[in-house]
Amino acid sequence: MAAEQTHDVAACKRVDEGITRVFQLLGKRWSGQILAVLMVQPAHFADLRRAIPGISERMLSDRLAELGAAGLVLREVDEGPPLRVSYQLTPSGAALEPPLRGLGEWAKHHLPQTPACVETAG
User: Fold this and answer.
1) Distance, CA of 75 to CA of 85 (rounded, Å)
2) How far apart are CA 32 and CA 101, in angstroms?
């Protein structure tokens, strides 16, 4: 029995490492919403801010920097005037689309809608 438990713990740790890394990045508030907007098309900073109600400029900037450092989002400066910054998914970021859409479908079927979800769904 003890050997069986050791095997199970080792298997859980192997699975947990990848999941932990994913959710340390994508589990942060607003990261999923940012990626969802960029899955549709590249966007300027102001467009992202309008598309994600409730996010502050500082938080959007911080999350974009984190997603950029992780290699998921590319930041490009559009020469002006006016000077604008646009963001798009990298190939690694775009590769997240199928699993994120799958999680969205799972949520539709298995998670109750909260009032906040109902308000933003429209």
Assistant:
1) 7
2) 11
Task: Report the predicted TM-score, pTM, of the whole model to 2 decimal places.
Answer: 0.78
Torsion of CA 105, 69, 82, 52, to 10 degrees: 30
Encode pLDDT of 9-64 as tens digits: 777 776 678 888 888 999 999 999 999 999 999 999 999 999 999 999 999 999 99
Instruction: Identify the CATH number of the domain in which residue 117 sits.
Output: 1.10.10.10
In which domain, by residue range, is 70 found? 29-121
Count up the domains in the chain and report the number: 1
Task: With respect to residue 101, please indicate whether it lies within any of the assigned structural domains.
Answer: yes
Angle in degrees, CA 83, 89, 90, rounded to 5 = 110
Tell me if the bond preceding 82 is cis, omega within 30° of 0. Answer: yes
